[in-house]
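Hi team,

As requested, here is the filled-out complex form for the guanosine-5'-diphosphate run. I kept the field names the same as last time so the parser does not choke. Let me know if anything looks off before we queue the next batch.

— J.
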Amino acid sequence: MPLHIIVGAQWGDEGKGRITDLLSADAVAVARFSGGDNAGHTVTVDAPGGPQIFKLHLLPSGLVHPHVVGVLGHGMVVNPSRLLAEMDRLRASGASVTPERVKLSAAAHLITPAHVALDQADEAARSAPSAGGKIGTTGRGIGPAYTDKTARRGLRAELMLDPARLGDRVLEHVRAANLTLERIYARPPLDAAAVAAEYTSYARALAPYLAETSLYLHGQLRAGAAVLAEGAQGTLLDLNTGTYPFVTSSSPTSGGAFVGLGLGPQFAGRIIGVTKVFQTRVGEGPFPTEAFGPEAERLRGTGANPWDEFGTTTGRPRRCGWLDLVLLRYAIRVNGITELVLTKLDVLAGLEQVRLCTGYEAGDQRYEELPWGPADLAPFRPIYESMPGWAEDSSGARTLADLPAQARCYVRRIEALTGVPVSLISVGPERSQIVPAR
Ligand code: GDP
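And here is what came back:
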């Protein structure tokens, strides 16, 4: 049975959480394969007392379903203190959080306060005028933890099987990081012994959740179960395929799912690319279709709705603009996306005109594909196609026929210009607010 992979086709925040939640109904396990608590996924579940909102950063969104096993895969970097806090929050909302339900890969890497301090010091140093500018990181220690991983001095989760050994390794790691903090960044050192003691206690709490998750997932797939791979961030933030250097330190693309879960591609099923019907980006970096002024404010919302464009993890206002089909075609190519899920169609209601960026121009040349990938987008100006908007609120639509004719045309135009079918259209954050596109 297949491994269905859900990836963000943009710069993250596409609404992958609610789509993962929807598809989890038929999955035995849902596995995160990259990133850490820099992700923020929101799932809204209809409940008798009103909608219940789950905000998940590390745990897979599928865990909201009682039958699902949530896996934190090899490719993740995990801050144990945040993981334990998130487990407590999920438990408080009535979910069962046990080692049978949550499996943490022994090969995932741990984030420490030293990684967080290094991340924040590095980001502050980059803001100096001579230093090339900020990346816009979340300051959660993600980058430095991956740096330690690639430098082969990282702290793997398996160390938690031996709390005393983990304590020794953490002591050594914080002392080394202190040298960098003090000498390079002129920042105060951390109390290495205190951090080591803290990690020894996390090890005791988390050791029961450790597992050989590749073996577990392989077993499930071999036995015929469906597994969902849940991407965090998005294709344009991928370390290899994104808008480098304004990227994250891992691979949130479909290829990253295999590496990050320790599985081979023979299990690949649907490769689902989730994209908003417009474009947003949080943090720094190029954004050709970025809108400004009232147009951007209209797409962003005021912050009054939970889905308005302010970061789940950081609260930062997101930059907003029109859907960029050059970048979407690129995301389809590098992930092998087999179907698109469109989110936030409801947000476009009431606009007189909607626009799609169908190509770029630079000088007297036109481009439908990026000649050198997305790292340097500065030379390109978007070419737009405008279509009539629609006044009707589409949040109550449940079938294609319920959508205004102009909205259907907009969806079909996206399909025509990408060559990939749209399978689902999301018209609101709640489970029921979804329209099959056929
Ligand atoms: P993720 O990181 O890709 O899971 O995305 P986020 O959860 O950060 O952001 C998506 C936000 O939009 C959340 O608040 C969702 O509840 C909300 N959302 C998802 N799909 C829709 C939709 O179709 N319409 C509206 N209005 N909100 C949506």
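Two things worth flagging: The domain at 3-101+212-436 is CATH 3.90.170.10 (Adenylosuccinate Synthetase; Chain A, domain 3). DSSP finds eleven helices and 19 strands in the chain.

Thanks,
J.
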